[in-house]
From TrEMBL:
Its EC number is 3.1.-.-. PANTHER family: BLL1145 PROTEIN (PTHR11203:SF49), CLEAVAGE AND POLYADENYLATION SPECIFICITY FACTOR FAMILY MEMBER (PTHR11203). This is Ligase-associated DNA damage response exonuclease. The lineage of its organism: Bacteria, Pseudomonadati, Bacteroidota, Chitinophagia, Chitinophagales. One of its GO terms (molecular function) is RNA endonuclease activity. Transmembrane segments: none annotated.
Amino acid sequence: MQLIEFTDKGLYCAPGNFYIDPWKPVDKAIITHAHSDHARWGSKQYLCHHYTKPLLQARLGDNVYESIGWNESIRLNEVTVSLHPAGHIIGSSQVRVSYKDEVWVVSGDYKTETDHISGVFEPVQCHAFITESTFGLPIYNWMPQESIYEKIRNWVIANKAAGKTSVLIAYSLGKAQRVLKALEPLQEKIYVHGAIWNMHQALLSAGILMPAVERVTPETTKDDLKAGIVIAPPGADGSPWMKRMEPYAVGMCSGWMQVRGNVRRRNADAGFILSDHADWKGLLAAIRATRAEKVFVTHGFQSTLSRYLNEQGIYSAEVKTEYGNDDEEAVNDTGIVEPHDDQINAEL
Ligand SMILES: [Zn+2]
Ligand SMILES: [Zn+2]
C-alpha cells in the first residue's frame, strides 16, 4: 500500500489528507523542521514539534500553527501521526504515519550522532522509510563531534594569539547553535550576525537554553571585536559587513569541507567538517534500524544510495523532491564530488 504518495505538491497521505513538508501551499502541512526548503510559506495549517513552532513563526510569520511533543500521537482522519527526534537541528522530527496495518516514516533531514541540542535520533520501525541522502556517498565519514569542536577551539585560540578575529561561517539555524556550544568552554564573548541573532531569539522564546551572545550592530566597534569571535552565515562571507572584523581569519563549518578544494574555493582560512546530516555509515545504520522493506531516497546522492540498498537486498527507489536548497545542502555550490578525498584540517 502506498500510504504516502509523491505528488507535485509534495509527500501526500491520502487517508489522512495531509502533506509532509509540501513545497506548494496546501491545507494541512506537517513540518519536519524549520529549514526553508522543508518549511514553506502559504499553507493554511501547520503541525510541527513545539520547538519548531517559534522558528516557523520567525520565518513564515503569522499562520495557524499546532505543535506536539515527540512520541505524542494525534489522529488525522483514520491515520495516526507521531513525531520522533531526527537529531538534525533543534525541533527536527521524523514523522511516523500509521494506517490500518501499515507504518511509514518520513525522516526529513537527520543525523545519528547526538549534538546534545537537537534531540537524539530515534530509530522507528516501519514498513517504508523515506530517507534523505545529502551525504549519501561512502567518502562522507564524519569524525566524532568532540574532536571537531576541539579543532575549532584551538583555531580560535591561535587566531587570538596572532591578533586576529575568528569569523566562523555557519548557517543561522542548526550549525550556528552547535558552533556556539563548541565555543562555550572558551568563556569568551561571542558576537553574532543579525540572521543568527533572530534564530537565537526564537530559540530563547521556546525556552531553549543557549549561551549568551551579542549582536553585531552599527555601534559595535573594531575594538569590541578585536581578536574576538564572530559567528556569521555564509551570505556575510566576503561582504563589506566583515570589514570591521579586520584583521580576521575565516573558518567554514560544513560537511562539504570534506571535499578537497572546498576550503580554497570558498576563500576560507580553515574548513571544519561539521555536518547536521548523517554520513554514509549513519544513513545505512539508520535505514537498517527501521527494518523497512521499502526505502525511498530523496535529495542528495539518491542514485548511489538507492543502488547500494538494492544490492543489499533492500528494495529502494529514488524520489524527486524539491528539498535540498537549505542550509548545508546549498553550500555545495561547487557541485563537485571527489571520491579520492583527503580530510581538510584546521591546519590548512
Ligand atoms: Zn534541513
Ligand atoms: Zn533537507
